[in-house]
Amino acid sequence: MIWEVFRQAKTGEYHTHCGNVHAPDREMAKQFAAIQHGRRKPTNSLWVVPREEIGEVGSDEVAFGGTTDKSYRWATAYNTTGTDAREVVESEDEQATAEKQRGDD
User: Fold this and answer.
1) Contact criterion met (CB below 8 Å) for 34 and 52
2) Which residues does the annotated region (Disordered) include (predicted)?
């Protein structure tokens, strides 16, 4: 039986896949994982999971995020030249003129 092994280097970090072991049962798989994958690098914990218990959700089954255009979130998506700057200056001038007319100087 094949067991997939996931290693956590430090407390609070994610477990990442580091390999697999061949073992007849869970206890042997844990021992083999500790020997093969836990002693070479700093290790806080190991997850040992039967390969057939791991499920996959593919993009053919579910539409994952990232399909919507959200380029407006990045400054590089804006054109900094053109009429936009002129409109801002004109608006500021209009606001200053209105304040003078109200006597807000």
Assistant:
1) no
2) 83-105
